[in-house]
Amino acid sequence: FNNPLGCTMSDEKKKAVLELLARHRVPLIEDDIYGDIYFGEERPKPFMALDPHGSTIYCSSFSKTIAPGYRVGWIATGRHMEKVLDSKFAFTLCGPALPQAALAEFLSSGGYDSHLRRVRRTFRDNIDRMIRTIDRVFPRGTRVSRPDGGFVLWLQLPKPLASRELFEAALKKGVCFVPGDVFSASHRYANCLRLSCGSAWHARIEKGLETLGELACALLTRQQRNGSPARRRHRVAQG
Q: Is residue 211 part of a domain?
């Protein structure tokens, strides 16, 4: 699932991408850390499952589904095993042995599938609660993603509200999020932001969203009254 939108590509589009890369002999590195956190009936197929050429290098992790502190992941290299091993040993000789042993024991116990079902229900419930709260407290015109999986929300704020300015104000109140321009190399999405829904729902989270919504409403009102910085510069230039 895409981060930060939470969407995914259809199998037909994935196959088209794979054929394009195969024609140019370019391998695909697939980062599928959110793949097991799906909200539909079936898990979306990864690129690797659709790749007849074996050119996909598949990467995933337990950090999103079990515990972020474990930092244990894996790679299915396809036909690139030798090059991947060379690169791996160039950066690190060994991984954390104790977390790997603990995860291996958990996986062999057969409890991972039932754990994933609970995790998916929890994340979907968190997202639903956050969307309802956002609809209630954020400025009119705010748009919110409806992700197919994962645990992040993408918000598009009404212009001229800038998420960077909102970010600075929110930090002073103890509330944090990711401004939208972090996801662009060309400073786009200045009025967007990403919220995480990865923690268990709590009154403190609801209060934080309410605080963020109040700040957004106040900031938007002030910017609309005074004009955005770009508009002020334009008026000065005209004068």
A: yes
| Residues spanned by the domain of 181 | 120-236
Task: Give mean pLDDT, residues 179-193.
Answer: 95
Q: For the segment 201-237, what is each residue's pLDDT rounded down to a tens digit? A: 999 999 999 999 999 999 999 988 886 554 444 343 3
* 131/226 same-domain check: yes
Residues near 228 by Cβ (< 8 Å), separated by ≥ 6? 159, 160, 162
Tokens of 163: 């998420």
The pTM (predicted TM-score) of the whole model is 0.85
* CATH code of the domain covering residue 142: 3.90.1150.10
- How far, in whole angstroms, is CA 82 from its chain's centroid? 31
Strand 143-144 relative to strand 152-156: parallel, antiparallel, unpaired? Answer: antiparallel
